[in-house]
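Data availability excerpt. The first of two example chains:
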Amino acid sequence: MKPVFIGVVSDSHGRFRELERMVEQAPDVSVWLHGGDYCNDGEDLSIYTGVPVYSVRGNNDFMSNFAAPECRKIRIDGMNIMLIHGHQWYGQQRLEKLVELGQTHAASLVAFGHTHRRFLKKTDGITILNPGSIGLPRDGHNGTYAVCTISKGILTNVRIYELTR
């Protein structure tokens, strides 16, 4: 069985050109996760790529007519993933709540956004990932996204990429 490549993006804020560049850089992705703040961009991304896109609402999606939930559980290749924007919590509490969310739903990966900063940490067997912001990064000049590799139901690799100019 071939590995499954999952793209994770967040905080696009309507900057579709950056999403197009991201897709050009990550052609093998078969599923995208959009962590909110312009979750409508997730719908556009699905049309543009032709692959499934799972989105959640962020704190800037209050005007959106796109019916994305605040949190969602996704099962891909036998592995549970939790996706949430993460604006509900701050500081150290955020990490604790994300780990708790992963434990509650037996998730190997919990992906979130909101901070516009990259974050990757494995805690209690759960990988906590923030891909940063594709549209308005706060930790560099170029937008960022992540690609996760799942093989036989196991998360084997997570890598955060920066958009090339």
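And the second chain:
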Amino acid sequence: MHGSTSYGLECKASWCDLLLSGEKTVESRLYPLPEACVGQRIWLLASGGADGVASLGETVLEGCTDAQVVSSSHTFLPSWQAWGLHYVPAALLNAGVTAEIFGWEVVSREALPAARPLPAMKRMKRSLYYMDSWC
């Protein structure tokens, strides 16, 4: 995998665990997966804090992280109820969220045995990062 990954996705640690176990098969976002990312490996950047709130800044410095790998594609979904394995809490669904929703289908996953060093990253979208180079 060295040198082949150029994107990182911030996810709360609990969601990363569900994605990597295969229990959660759709990552829900309010924006489509950029075309350049479709079919590519994406590092999951496990973060803390409240759900729905980004914890990482505009840039992420080079360093080690408990990152793992997924490959994704995306589809537009007409409602939160259109698919079942997104794990969006019922309270949020009932709160009247009406924005366009995109489901990023996880087609493969790999939990790494240990943290890996990653290069510095810059934000592309709210929680999606581009890695300038691979260290």
